[in-house]
Design brief:
The protein is an alpha+beta fold. The protein has 3 helices and 11 strands. It has one domain: Beta Barrel (Lipocalin), CATH 2.40.128. The protein starts with a helix and ends with a strand.
Length: about 190
């Protein structure tokens, strides 16, 4: 074998031993069939009103090598609020509550992500009722599986929000209470 061919063969062999280039972030879209955004709020401080939002969209990008490069976003159509009571739902869409004509969406956009034991700590901008505040949530999960040829990953979180922090009508806060517990169970499908 000529010296040039020997050198070329050694070079190719050496390159094959080098670690593979870092993989790109995994991209996922919100699977509305296997996900939910629900909430509960106190009624007259004696019981709970439960509800959900039926129209939610989102996407996230997970960089397992460098979690700081990951991102999460979620968009909720506010008028899809559903408490299993049509009259109450229509009231919740009015200006003294969600004011869905003026503020049609509730959104979360991550600004910082770090890995924690069992998931990710995600800080981001949460916008509701025309007000944006920075919040930090713990997304637990992140296990990836493949089902029917589609990669899937799931996360869950629970957070408490005060409606007064988002400029809801103060007169509407009394009967239902200021604080709401929001439960997000999110399954993503690879794009």
């Amino acid at each position: 074998m000529s010296p040039v061919r020997l050198f070329s063969a050694l070079l190719l062999f050496t390159i094959s031993l080098l670690p593979a280039a870092a993989t790109a972030a995994e991209e996922y879209v919100y699977d509305a069939v296997h996900s939910s955004v629900s909430f509960k709020a106190r009624h007259l401080d004696i019981s709970w009103i439960h509800g959900r939002f039926n129209e939610v969209d989102g996407r996230f990008s997970i960089d397992r090598q460098d979690p700081a490069k990951s991102s999460f976003q979620l968009t909720i159509k506010a008028d899809s609020v559903d408490t299993a009571n049509a009259a109450r739902d229509e009231h919740l869409r009015q200006p003294d509550y969600f004011d869905t004509k003026q503020f049609p969406t509730i959104e979360f956009r991550s600004t910082k992500v770090k890995a924690i034991d069992g998931g990710y700590e995600v800080t981001g901008d949460f916008t509701m009722h025309g007000t944006t505040r920075s919040i930090t949530i713990k997304l637990m999960g992140g296990k990836q599986i493949e089902s029917r040829g589609v990669k899937r990953v799931g996360f869950a979180t629970e957070l408490r929000l005060k409606r007064s922090d988002y400029n809801f009508d103060a007169s509407a806060i009394g009967p239902i209470g200021d604080e709401a517990v929001v439960i997000i169970d999110c399954e993503g499908m690879s794009k």
